[in-house]
UniProtKB/TrEMBL annotation, chains A, B:
InterPro entries: ADH-like_C, ADH-like_N, ADH_Zn_CS, GroES-like_sf, NAD(P)-bd_dom_sf. Pfam families: ADH_N, ADH_zinc_N. Residues 178-303 form the Alcohol dehydrogenase-like C-terminal domain. This is Alcohol dehydrogenase catalytic domain-containing protein. Belongs to the zinc-containing alcohol dehydrogenase family. It comes from Actinoplanes sichuanensis. The keyword Mitochondrion does not apply. Keywords: Metal-binding, Oxidoreductase, Zinc. Its cofactor is Zn(2+). Residues 25-135 form the Alcohol dehydrogenase-like N-terminal domain. The keyword Ribonucleoprotein does not apply.
Length: 345, 345
């Protein structure tokens, strides 16, 4: 079969690899019908050393189960399924608490010996814990929105949940990528009253307004912080969702959050150290929360609203390609010509 | 009157200063009957530059109201009162939410033109918002415990509340100073099941056991983290309260907290930057919370349990002195010969 491999920064190829097959009795093999490129894929696309060890890419997919191991009981050949961006056993202490990203036996697609999802097919470890059966056909018009349950909608939802967004909340969302825009949608869905979207790409911030943003701030840094404070009686918003992952975005979050409020991060931090001392977080009683989103348990929570059309997170896809077009899709997303590229292998 | 002034690191003196008097109609003047030395006083005692501008010291007190401004309505001359370590107007948006440390008109004793509490008397700004009348006599046996409501018990309570301690929680408390020990008491009071106290001074950790610690870990750093994990099936505790304020204590908290758990800091951070990235907090979904404790609203919450003897936080005092003995008290606490010194001016 064909799969997407990243050989080094900027060097992405679609190549023949061995077909996936069952290895453990808890495995399934899934033929992928829809996958996509994630904003987080752009970090390795930008920085991976050309070390001769290519990485299988892609961690979001919908597909049709082809074969299941003898221990798999919840899905069977022919089922259409969606997978979260981490696989998990569904039975360990962390999975039972809903923190599937800390699963004792879990992993991320494309890491270690796990396949990537920008491919024709994939071996799914712990199929029962990982896959969720979808009650639609593989060519349903809902597929783009359902695909966002793999990662970006669930991640936006995680940001809002961890941020403590409830009815009436004031929220700033930093970043107009797919996760930022879907954090807007998630915050709106949870009842936020004021949602300030910080982003400077009009097509994206327009979609953000459609998703529920009440204000858009194009400025960054101190000017951006000032603009958020002007919209909030000088105080900042109770919740700030940081959906970028850079240090400047973190600093912007510290500046835009209200005393006693919460910074919820879902942008993968490209830094390790950041200010957390007296002047930044401590004296002001700012909470820092968020993290890698355990989207598996969120699928059940968000699925009904996607199926009944209450929300349409699939609008973040503004381009579609087949597998051959994936390298071009990476370049378009890196150049910010595309927001998010849907892949039909 | 006499007051305590810090001229520079190690140079602390009790000197004559002008008697306090009413300045604003919202002020009160209080004759102090009980004050104390705080672990946080030791940071400036250790580091203050000898810049010719002495600092008034002390931020915890009980006293008798001598005089009130014309706008003061909740306390009157003769009342015994306790004050939190920050004064606050009680009416601003933050005060109404209970975040008195962010009061628009608030301040900390000893900063700016505010008097210090290690003195014979003190001018209290915003007396209605700041002072709480106590239903006991100035020589009550409950005075030590009531005095901890100014700061250390309220701060330990804040750590436990922000950490999300509830019935059945597992908690690590880093630090066997007064705040750490009272965080143990607060966690126990809120129903924590397992409380691991990290400290190496036996007299203190023995008091910690009396307050509710189920385990004591004397090791620090990696050895300390390993010991906490051995007590918790390898996972760490759901809550870690950091009551020291150093970077090593922060790192210990990151190592001792369970994935998905919460680090609640109340030790005043002596660092600004710390690890918050993928490996430390982000991938593990660790919350970082806590901060300067708004003890004013906690007084009403904790007072009944102190009055009826359910808790006895005053046990943290292991020495008593008059004002003349305050410099010696600082030296004893800095040398860890005293846990916390009570001052009867």
């Amino acid at each position: 079969m064909r799969a997407t491999l990243l050989y080094g920064a900027g060097d992405i190829r679609v190549e023949e690899v061995p077909d996936p097959r069952l290895v453990h009795p808890t495995d399934a093999v899934v033929r992928i019908t829809a996958a996509c490129i994630c904003g987080s894929d752009l970090w390795p696309f930008d920085t991976k050393p050309a070390d001769g060890v290519p990485t299988r890419m892609g961690h979001e997919f919908i597909g049709v189960v082809e074969e299941t191991g003898t221990d798999v009981t919840t899905v069977r050949a022919g089922d259409l399924v969606v997978a979260p961006w981490v696989f998990s056993d569904g039975t360990c202490e962390y999975c039972r608490e809903g923190l599937t990203t800390s699963c004792t036996h879990g992993g991320i697609w494309g890491y270690g010996d796990a396949d990537g999802a920008q491919a024709e097919a994939i071996r799914v470890p712990h199929a029962d814990g990982t896959l969720v059966k979808l009650p639609v056909a593989a060519d349903s018009a809902l597929i783009p929105s359902l695909l966002t349950l793999s990662d970006v909608f669930g991640t936006g939802h995680h940001a809002a949940v961890r941020g403590g967004v409830t009815a009436g909340s004031s929220v700033t969302v930093i970043g107009d990528g797919a996760v930022g825009l879907l954090a807007v949608l998630a915050a709106k869905r949870l009842g936020a009253e004021q949602i300030v979207l910080m982003g400077r790409h009009k097509a994206r911030t327009d979609l953000g307004r459609e998703f529920g943003a009440t204000d858009v701030v194009a400025e960054r840094g101190d000017a951006g912080i000032t603009a958020v404070r002007e919209l909030t009686a000088g105080q900042g918003t109770t919740v700030v969702i940081e959906a970028v992952g850079t240090r400047p975005a973190y600093d912007q979050a510290v500046g835009a959050v209200r005393n006693g409020g919460t910074i919820s991060r879902v942008g993968v931090p490209q830094y390790e150290d950041a200010p957390v001392g007296i002047g930044s977080l401590f004296f002001r009683n700012i909470r820092l929360t968020g993290g890698a989103a355990p989207t598996r348990p969120y699928i059940a929570e968000l699925l009904p609203d996607v199926l009944n059309g209450t929300v349409d997170p699939g609008k973040v896809f503004d381009a579609t390609t087949d597998l051959t077009g994936v390298p071009t899709g990476y370049r378009q997303m890196a150049a910010r010509e595309s927001l998010k590229v849907l892949v039909h292998p």
